[in-house]
Design goal:
The protein has 606 residues and is of the alpha/beta class. The protein has a six-stranded parallel sheet with strand order 7-6-8-9-5-10. α4 crosses α22, α14 packs antiparallel against α20 and α16 packs antiparallel against α17.
Length: 606
């Protein structure tokens, strides 16, 4: 059986995508007498659909062709480079090989642009560290030693690229605000006659941008800055698509041929950025502009190919902060304890500061303790919290009917406000108080099942009408509509528009305004009583109910559960058996890419 014939059977079973098959057919057209390039193309394309940037033959194979009748396995050694179908980075080929890694050409080029942009910004700036420490003093009035928030701000000032990572409640936005203030203070002192730096803040999604805007404005209240500098501080975060000027067709206005008019860009929730979007961003940045990424390295990676943020943060999320001696000696101009100066560390560690002190929860809070145990894969700690749960942590039985009733009860106040004609802001705030989060979309414990059951329960309580649209119906968009500025993942609530008395869906935008959209103009959507954990990224709710399936699923892993738990501000409830928890904690997302290796090798060569 030929490679194409066997691959067709995998297409029919839904294992391969039509795109994977199309690329395999294209490779077969140019290689009619050799099946290996066909297999390799199908596998590399399949892996791209699973979020991997490349096939790394030095790692255990990731196979979609796992049946006994598969006539082929990946070669033990990298395939031969022929300069025609499989080439080196300098060739124009369908597949690109570098070391043991095999890429689709577009992914290799995209990864290279990110590597180049980061590498160029990793060099130390020639800055007066004593002045930076002096100016940072009033911004960080703390006696904590070491004060990692202060270190993060000064470290960003040292470089034109930096990463601030940490879990929820570790003060990332507060730190970013003061880091930007420090940049303005340094610029004003060093170049008093020059224009102040142009600062922009962005996030991958509208809800993440809205949250960042809210946190930013709160952090600005007590910021000790002169009025002239305060006026230069950003007061609004935008989506990355808006920052790049994406038009109705999704194409960015700003790109390599038309650069962004910025000096400093900060991107929050950076773990959600895929390789393609990161490539667009760095391509549009002026060479002299600084880029700082902020996020939680332990959260889920992007839906599309790549785990750029995790790759840049390094493999060990609990290794603490590490700096090379030359950076260590300059940071604050003083000795710091509690960090590693491992000379064999993975670059670019000099640019990464991890915040570990949690300000949101006290030490007895269950949410933070459970999230930490999940992040570390500590099943013993999870079992201890299950045996003696704190007040903010609940373990629930897998009783679908009871869970649906609990969700309906939690949603009732929002629906009552909507029916009473309360202010849209009040209804949206009530909607943000509770969310049921599922690991899966389909199946008996998935989003589709719970949305249908909750709709039925609300109708039985008289909280929803029998018509498709009623005040309080919550929807989640599942497709972008560039012409209306509506994006996949945006959530809205149906209310009576006071302007014309018509039922419309109202969305909160990143700048705090409201957008009213008639239901007939909505792109594809679904009910939002329950949502997947993936879709919840960038959001926070007072109470969260996390539901894991009864049996194992390829979706389960530490990052998924950690992300679901950390959406909660005040209380979290979990539905999961010991067996499923054990499987979840024993699995981590491992996306294959060459970003860290290529960046490390490039910095070592300089």
């Amino acid at each position: 059986m030929s490679a194409l014939s066997w691959l067709e059977t995998r297409l029919e079973r839904g294992i391969l995508r039509p795109l994977d098959m199309s690329l395999a057919r294209l490779m077969a057209r140019y290689s009619p007498d050799d099946d290996e390039p066909v297999w390799l193309m199908a596998l590399v394309s399949y892996l791209a659909g699973q979020g991997h940037v490349c096939l790394d033959l030095s790692q255990p194979p990731l196979l979609p062709f796992d049946s006994d009748d598969c006539p082929w396995l990946p070669p033990a050694l990298p395939p031969e480079v022929d300069g025609h179908l499989i080439g080196t980075p300098d060739d124009t080929c369908l597949l690109v090989r570098e070391a043991s890694r095999l890429y689709l050409a577009r992914h290799y080029q995209a990864e290279g642009r990110v590597v180049h942009a980061v590498r160029a910004r990793c060099r130390l700036r020639d800055l007066p560290i004593g002045l930076a420490g002096e100016l940072a003093g009033p911004l960080f009035p703390t006696t904590a030693q070491p004060d990692w928030q202060r270190v993060a701000a000064i470290n960003c000032a040292l470089h034109r690229f930096g990463i601030i990572t940490g879990g929820p409640g570790t003060g990332k936005t507060w730190t970013v605000t003061r880091m930007l203030a420090l940049q303005l203070l340094l610029a004003a002192h060093r170049y008093p006659e020059a224009p102040l730096p142009r600062l922009r803040l962005a996030a991958p999604t509208g809800k993440a941008a809205a949250r960042l805007t809210e946190s930013l404005r709160a952090a600005l209240v007590d910021l000790p800055l002169p009025d002239m500098l305060r006026a230069a501080m950003p007061t609004e975060a935008v989506t990355l698509h808006r920052l790049l000027g994406a038009g109705r067709d999704g194409r960015p206005r700003y790109h390599a041929g038309r650069l962004l008019p910025v000096d400093v860009v900060v991107v929050d929730e950076a773990s959600m950025i895929d390789l393609g979007l990161m490539t667009q961003l760095v391509s549009a940045l002026p060479d002299a502009a600084a880029l700082y990424l902020v996020g939680d390295r332990d959260q889920l990676a992007s839906v599309e190919a790549g785990s750029v943020f995790a790759d840049l943060c390094g493999e060990d999320s609990d290794a603490g902060n590490r700096f090379s001696p030359n950076v260590f000696s300059r940071l604050l101009g003083e000795a710091l304890t509690g960090l590693s100066q491992d000379t064999a560390m993975t670059l670019p560690d000099d640019q990464v500061v991890r915040l570990a002190r949690v300000h949101r929860y006290d030490e007895a809070a269950g949410i933070g303790r459970l999230a930490d145990a999940v992040r570390l894969g500590d099943m013993a700690a999870v079992q201890a919290l299950r045996a003696d749960p704190p007040e903010d942590l609940h373990w629930l039985a897998p009783d679908r009917a009871a869970l649906v009733e609990q969700a309906a009860t939690a949603l009732a106040p929002m629906l009552a406000l909507a029916r009473e004609g309360a202010a849209p802001e009040a209804v949206l705030a009530a909607f943000a108080r509770f969310r049921l989060l599922c690991a899966q979309r389909r199946g008996p414990w998935g989003v589709e099942t719970f949305n249908a059951l909750i709709t039925r329960a609300l109708r039985a309580r008289g909280l929803s009408g029998h018509q498709p649209w009623f005040p309080g119906r919550a929807v989640l968009l599942t497709r972008n509509d560039w012409s209306q500025g509506l994006f996949n993942g945006d959530a809205g609530v149906t209310l009576m528009d006071p302007a014309d008395g018509q039922l419309k869906v109202v969305f909160a935008t990143a700048d705090g305004s409201l957008r009213w959209v008639p239901p007939v103009r909505l792109p594809a959507f679904e009910d939002a009583w329950a949502m997947t954990i993936h879709k919840s990224q960038g959001s926070e709710f007072d109470q969260v109910l996390v539901v894991l399936p009864e049996h194992d699923s390829p979706l389960l892993g530490r990052e998924l559960l950690y992300t679901g738990l950390t959406r909660a501000r005040q209380q979290v409830s979990v539905v999961a058996s010991d067996a499923v928890l054990q499987l979840t904690l024993g699995r981590r997302i491992q996306r294959r890419s060459g970003l860290a290796a290529r960046l490390r090798d490039g910095l070592r060569d300089e």
